[in-house]
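FYI - complex with shikimate-3-phosphate, inputs then prediction.
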Amino acid sequence: MTIDPKLNVNFYLVGFMGTGKSSIGRQLAKAMQMEFIDSDSEIVKIAEKPIKYIFTQEGESEFRKMEREFVVSGHPETGCIIACGGGLVMQEGMIDILKSKGVLICLFASASTILKRTSSNLNRPLLNVESPEEKIAELLAERESTYLQAGTGIYTDNRSIAEIVEHALRIYRKQAAMFP
Ligand code: S3P
């Protein structure tokens, strides 16, 4: 699918941990010849320490402030595909800010898929607990209604990356063309 080169509105990918924001984002950036940015990586660069140490040494609230700064003034206004950390949209007013900056989609996956996709990576402090399964269920219950308001949803279970990328491109083409 070709993308109109005039459409360089930012494209924000949100959703729970393990829903594929970074993998899909990277493929989208290739397909759209736009820059890929991951909010977590940008924060790690600025803090000069891994996320788990930001959480343990400075606290989750400091990390959330850094996420907010990243959204408000820490990334280019156009031309980017941005994978947002899973909790970023939970902050008050964040969905509206993101919608004012670009096209927003939310990736979804079942709890069991999320568990599978996140279990090999210990870099997510919120899931570094005795029962990641219970924590995922708890956080999903807490966050689901917010994710449902965060742009068009794409369900990722049992779908190939290529299929999801095509779906995301269709949404982007429609919505970027109407972007104010
Ligand atoms: C978090 C998700 C993580 C990262 C941090 C907190 C969350 O990003 O920002 O560990 O609160 O859901 P990913 O969604 O990229 O794993």
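Residues 17, 21, 40, 51, 85-87, 124-126 surround shikimate-3-phosphate (CB under 6 Å). The first helix runs from residue 21 to 32.
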